[in-house]
Amino acid sequence: MPNQYDVIIIGTGAGGGTLALRLAKSGKKILMLERGPYLPREKQNWDPVDVFVHNRYVSKDPWKDKDGKTFEPGVHYFVGGATKMYGAALFRLRKEDFGELKHHDGISPAWPIGYDDFEPYYTEAEELYHVHGVRGEDPTEPKASKPYPYGPIEHEPRIQKLNDDLIKGGYHPFHAPTGILRNEQHPELEPCIKCDTCDGYPCLTHAKADAETIAVRPALKYPNVTMVTDAEVVQLKTSASGREVTEVIANVKGKTESYSGSIVVVSAGAANSARILLMSANDKHPNGLANGSDQVGRNYMFHNSQAVVALSVEPNLTQFQKTISLNDFYFGEPGFDYPIGNIQMIGKSKGPMFKSDAPFFAPGFALEQMAKHAVDFWLTTEDLPDPNNRVTLTRDKQIVLSYTFNNVVATKRLYTRLHAMLEHLGLHKHLIPNSVYLGKVIPIAGVGHQAGTCRFGTDPKTSVLDTNCKAHELDNLYVVDTSFFPSIAAVNPSLTAIAMALRVGDHINERLKRKGE
Asked: What is the CB-side half-sphere exposure of residue 505 using CA atoms within 13 A?
């Protein structure tokens, strides 16, 4: 049968794309189904007005909030998924993040497997995705079996001064772990030019270590790997017993297509993976596929994040700004014995990005003058899993994202700590919210770090997936993206999704090998 495959992977982002590459060498017949097209390479890739003001690459997919109000989430349905627009900040979770942690507002639960289980896959993921960094600078970092595969991205002069001023203040800044195709000693050998259009932009030179560049394109070089784009999966059909997925139904450019696979993997992102399972309800799975626990769609997390701008006393002529991170407050501070979070740089602001904020926060400042002095920070604290923060569907299968913020005391604490540091860092004492990143506190439309919804665990009554990301209730269904996270920690989730894809890939490869014997 032409549409019969050994493995079908739905989604081509950090999870699905990486998994496809891991399975490619098996020789088995593998199909990737991607909801979107290839992101076009065009000069608008690097235009801040097109990217941030006109949202040229935000996919049209209206969702509703808990009050029934329609909003446009910041989703990107392209080959490579969300990684096409990410800042390539590829952090390992701290070792403690895998255990139970008490926060101001409650408990961040323990994972069913620990850091030591992930460590070898983190090491592989860092090599595969060209992660640059330095071991030993961050006092919270877990032990690693190898150095970073690539040396650090060098600080430009104003950021080097910021780094030095932080050290003088008794802090421990470290080179942010960054996935780009860059050779600092011989830049002519790699495509990255360290431009000011990396974080939040698509990369026109394919120099960002995104899933399309690193995984999907290399996987497609194998003759046994196929991809269909513009293919939105709308249903998974099962056998009469309900134990196996037998058909994947997709809308491909307006036409309904059916595919069959011995193994089916959902890697559509936390919200859309849950949507696919919920849309696939049948007599054996009346509440949605793999949802006997009533956990599908629940425990949605996406970080408590803030994008803020400080104004430097001296001009900040930096091009590639995202080279510093700080975890001094990750696990708390004197007088506050709860985790707080991570501070890192983000991409360099440009004048049009301040249009909505400038009149109030900096009257008389020209937008370009603001941008010339801007130093941009991203603050991340952990939001806690809450079963009432969840994805459900309307009657016409539209996503409803119900979310109530929690753990906001830690969020405010991190903001206050950064604010108190400004004057000692050669910065004016005001922080400006950067609305281009969806506001001072990222609202629910900011779904770049979405996680949860199909948590993994050992108890089928309280989790959707087992420790290999296979659905407890089905024999051939896996979910391999950030849906499996029981908690989200306070660093970017991409590297953990990549590491898990490699781990599950080894498991599936072994399963395919046994089947072929």
From this structure: 28
